[in-house]
Every structure is written in C-alpha cells, then in structure tokens.
Amino acid sequence: MNHLTSLQLKLLRDLWRLRTQAFAVAAVAMCGITSPVSTRGAYEALRLAQHTYYQQYRFADVFASVRRAPAGITDAIRRIEGVADVQARVLFDATLDVPGLTEPATGRLVSLKTANQNDLNRIYPRAGRLPAPGSRHEILVREAFAGANALQAGVDLKVVINGRFETLTVTGIAISPEYINEMRGSGFPDYRRFGVLWMDHEALSSLLGMREGCIDIVLTLSPGASEAEVIHRLDGLLETFGGLGAIGREDQLSHQFISNELAQTRVSATVIPTIFLSVTAFLVHNVLLRLSSLQRTQIGLLKSFGFGHVTIAGHYMQFALITVATGSITGIALGSWLGHGLAHLYARFFHFPILSFSLSASLVLTALIVSLLSALLGSSLAVLRVLRMTSADAMRPESPLHYRRSNLESSRWWWRLPLALRMVSRNLLRTPLKTSLTVLGLSMSTALVITGLFSFDALNEIIRFQYRVLQLEEISVTLNEAYSADVVSRLSRLPGVLRAEGFLSMPVSLKVRHREKRTVIIGLERERQLQLTVDAHERSIELPAEGLVSSRMLADLLEFQIGDSVEIHFLGRRRQKIDVPVTLILDEPIGAFAYMDTQALSRLLQKIPTANGAWLALDMTKADEFYRTIKALPALASTSLREATPASFLSTVGENIRINNSVLIFFACVIAAGISYNSARIALSEHATELASLRILGFTRAEITVLLLTEQWLLTAIAIPLAA
C-alpha cells in the first residue's frame, strides 16, 4: 500500500511538473472526443427524427407522375402485389405574385384531403388551420417559403390557375415529410421563390378541370415487397396514361438531399475523430518518452527496490490515462453543447416537427473507450522502453546518439545554408521517425483547415462555373406545355427582353447495358448566347448536329463514353425505344442531364420543333415591368432567376458551412499548438546541454530562440504542402 501511495505521489508531481504538456495532450483529446460526440450525436438525432417523421406522417415509398389518369386507377394499383396503400393526387406548378416580392415566385399546389388523416405524406400544421373542405381560395404554405417571405395566416397570394386569376388566402403554415427540403431539379433550393402550397383536393381538382382525374400517385409497400418489381408493374400500368416513370424513395429529391447530409455527417463523425485520436496517441508517446528519459535514474531505483514491471508500467500508463481521460470528459461536455447547437441548425434547415439532441450512454461509453485505447496505444511504446531497461542500465546516463554525416550534408549546397538552418536540419535528420510523426501530425491539422475551406471553394467554383460561365441569362421560364417554336419570338417581344432562346425539355429513361437512369433531355438551339456548352478550358464549343450530349455525371452513372450507344425511352409517350450514339460529354458541375440539338430531337419525336421553356436576357432597367407582365401569363408554369438561386442557397446553407468550418479550424489550431509545443519542449530538453554550451560560446538568447523556433518553422513548412 505504501508503495502504491509513493507512486501516486510521484504521479501527481509528474503531472504538475509536465502540466503544460499534459494540458496540450488533454486539449487534443478533448477535440478528438468533442467531434464524435457532437457529430455522431447530431447524426443519430437527425436519423431518429427522419425515421419518426416518415413513420408517423406516412411518407410514401414510391412516387409516380402521369400526364392524366382516371382517379379510379388506384383500384388497379392496389391489386399489384406488394402495394400496401395508394393515393392519387393533383399537382400543379403556377406562378405566384407574393406580397413584397418584385420577381415572380413559383408555387407547387398539392391537393390535400383535409378530412382524411390517414393520407400518405401527411402534413404537420405549424400554425393556423387547415383549408376548409371544398374551399377554392384557401391554402396552407410550407414553413420555409412562409418564413422567407414573412407570410402569415390571412395573407393573400395571387396565382394564375388554368388561365384564370385566383386569389388564395393563407390559412396556416405546415410542413410535410415529402418536402423536408424544397428543390426543383438538381440545382439549389430557393426558399423565397419556390414554395409548396396545399389546397383542398376537391377544390384544386375543380380549378384544374380534373374532378375525376389525377396526375400524381404515391404509394407505400408491404413489408418484404420488392420495390423494383412494384415500380416495373406500376410503369407498365401507367404507360397508357402517359406515365413519366415511377421512382423509389431513394430517388425522391427531398429524401435524397437529407440522405446525403446524413452520409456526410456519418463520415465526419468517423474521419475527424480518427485524426485527433491519432495525434493524441502520438503526443502521449512523445511526453512519456521524454519523461522516461528524464527519469532513468528514478526508474533504476524503482526496479532495484523491487517494483515489478506491471507496477512500473501501470504508473506510466496512469499518466497517459489521467491526461486523456481529463480531456475526454471535458470533450463529452463540450460535444454535448455543440451537438445541441448542431441539432438546432438541422431543425432550422430541414424543418422537422421534433429534432432534439440527446447524449446516449452507448455513445459516451464508446467515446471513452476509444480515447482510452488511444492513450494506451500512445503509451505502450514508451512503457515498453521503460520495461526493457535493467536497473544497471537505467542508473547510467543515456548513451548519446550515433552521429554520422548524412548524404545531404555531403552535398555542395549544404554549406550555403545559414548556420541555424544547418544545425536544425541536422538534428531533424538524425531522428527521422520522430520528425516524420511530427510532420504528419502538423499536416493533419493543416488538412483539417483545407478540408473546411475546400467546401467553400468548391461551392464558389460550382456557382462561378454554372452561373457565370454556362448560364448567362437573367431568368429562365418554363411553360405548362410544349408550344410551337414561334412562342420564343413572342417571349422576346415582352417588355425588357433583349434576347430569348428556347429549349425543349423531355423526360426520358436512358439505358446502357444493365444500367438505367431517369433524367431529362434538353433540346438546345444551335445558335446560343445564353446557355453555353464549353470544353475543359471554358471555351465555347458548338453543339453536335446529331447524337446525344451528356453531362459527365450522367456518363459516370451509366458508365458510357463517346461513341457508345444509349437507349432512349421518351416517358409519357407510347413509342419504341431509340438507340442514339453519344457524341460529346460535358464537364458540368450540377446535374445528370443530357442534351441534343433541337432539330435532331424533333426528328426523334417525329414532330415539328417545339419549345416548353426559354432563357431570357433582360434590360434590368425594365425588369419590374417585365416581372409584372409575366406574372399574368397563363402559359407560364415556373420561373428561375439566375442570380437569386445561388444567393438564396448561400444565405441558408452557407451559415451551416461557416459554423462547421469555424469549429474545424479551432480544432486544427489545437492540434497544431499541441504538437508544436510538445515538439519544442522535447527539443529543449534533448539539446539543453548543447544550447547551454552555445550560450557559453557567446550566442545570445535571441539566437538560441531562433534555433528552437527555426525547427518548428521548418517542420511546419514541410507539413503544409503535404497536407495539400
């Protein structure tokens, strides 16, 4: 007992004497535990909120769109093996005139059976009330759109439905599992100019002239049912009615967005803690190695007094365990606090009914076990060195390192280096393992900063390329159906329009061997100035007169190259599938789209050239007049402003990225400070005699300081390019 008490007192003295180095180790361990506790805890909270939300509000498993089908089609769908429940709906995209918004917005009107609480994709009211049954002028508005436009119950929105002006009154704010994130296509969400509106089913069907019809079908699957088989049979059933192709939940835009966020959070919760705990093990190893070198005589005395290997090993491992455990406990508390903040950000962004962060016992236990294992791993080599010492060896001073001239010192340019740099480089070259590990640790901290800033750089580059190089229009408009090509000339005569270029967007299913992808083919005019196709050097290239042009993302998904043949099935049309060769692949940053020359696409469709959308260049001095005009166009389905879309995205997602990057940079600074401080302390202890000799020879304190700092500067200079 006295032996243990003596060692415990020695342990406390060692901790106090090396308190700054122990604090550095504890700080890195704290960051290593804070990261998984916060990110993994937020991941679990987000996943639980998603699962609960989907289950309680009956999020559908399969989604299908048709041009028009009878409402009674649901009876035939229910008879498909594997279908548990089905619901037919009406959807309609319309241009909105929102109070306080100069530009037109797009509202997706979704039919809602207010009397049936067993609907699929049920809504969750946040404020106000549901629309009255049969009311043609009452709507619910999704929370994100309402918040971006300061909409409340009682506000009126003007909309053109089926060629008629309608005034819709907001009765409440709601959310739905189907629209956790409001997105159109695969671009950026724009909460101010695109929103989901729910209207009574009978009222919306009446306004659209579809009392006995539907254009959207959602269904759930029975346990154990094959999604692929159900989709195959559903597509066959809906083909007669212009089916646009059913998709599973994994391909639904909102679910896809949150799934990507979950996957990213899960990776972050694994990779970043691994970096921190590796550095923790390295720092523990360095501290104990220095401690054992300084205490050789004490180790020899302990062994000569009969202390066994297990007791001595336990003594030094306790130093590591206490240091890392202190940092880990602090990290759990800090991680819990950051996790609550991260969950709050997720709740604001994804609009779940309930999203709360809770620290599970399994997560805390796992974090502690992993941190303690890193401490044991870091201390094991140093402790093994202690155990290998005999009493006689430990009582003698440590043998000096075997010095010899390296190849670099034999080179001609070596002697041209400053004296301080030569001295530092020689010391580093003689301990290659320690130097390599220190550089590795510093490069990890630099890599964290680069990783955090890369997300901003990548996002800015995507926005620059997509919205400054490829897209040069001020606004794009989508029409509610395809019109003859002269619709483009009519659009060009609207107030403030300088140039109009039409396009034809066709939903298709592309197949290459066993791989298949639903996307759109966009028919482009040959002479274009507003929507460009460019090569890798951002030089404009001409669209081929024949064949299919693909984005790089689509080519990678289907694994085809230029010259390969792609099978095209035009969805919504009863026609044979057509094989078309790939003539060009574009490196586009957003979307998995395909393109064709409008004339070539029209020949495939066996019809005269048409357009269902246009890109417009505007005289911005007349923009207000243009916006007022298009808000009243009955043929207009939706609009998208080039500048507004990325700006809206950055104002929401950018905040999350900035916060995450700030935390990453703080963690990186902790790693760099911990490694640099320990490295400097070890260098000072190892070269104390040499430095004292230099002082006797006339070196000033400033010159000695430069020697010590030059070593850290050199290590950092080597680490930075390695991190990049």
Which descriptors apply to this entry?
724 residues; alpha+beta; 20 strands; elongated
Characterise the protein shown here.
The protein is an alpha+beta fold. 51% of the residues lie in helices and 21% in strands. It is built from 21 helices and 20 strands. A 6-stranded mixed barrel has the order 3-4-9-6-8-7. A 6-stranded mixed beta barrel has the order 13-14-18-15-17-16. Helix 1 packs across helix 9, helix 7 (253-294) packs antiparallel against helix 9 and helix 7 packs parallel to helix 19 (644-686).
Task: List the topology elements.
Blueprint (H helix, E strand, L loop, with lengths): L1 H16 L1 H38 L5 E9 L2 H6 L4 E7 L1 E7 L7 E8 L11 E5 L9 E5 H6 L7 E6 L2 E12 L18 E7 H7 L5 E9 L5 H12 L8 E2 L4 H42 L1 H9 L4 H42 L10 H28 L2 H5 L11 H4 L8 H12 L1 H39 L4 E10 L2 H6 L4 E16 L2 E10 L23 E4 H7 L6 E6 L7 E9 L7 E4 H8 L4 E9 L4 H8 L5 E6 L2 H43 L1 H9 L4 H23 L1
Parallel strand pairs: 4-9, 6-8, 14-18, 15-17
Antiparallel strand pairs: 1-10, 1-11, 2-10, 3-4, 3-7, 5-8, 6-9, 7-8, 12-19, 12-20, 13-14, 13-16, 13-19, 15-18, 16-17
Bulk shape: elongated
Share of β-strand residues? 15-25%
- Low-pLDDT ranges: none
Largest sheet entry: 6 strands, mixed, barrel
What's the total helix number? 21
What is the gyration radius calculated from CA atoms?
Answer: 33 Å
- What's the N-to-C terminus distance? 54 Å
Number of strands: 20
Spatial strand order of the main sheet = 3-4-9-6-8-7
Helix content: 40-55%
| Class by SSE composition | alpha+beta
Mean pLDDT comes to 83
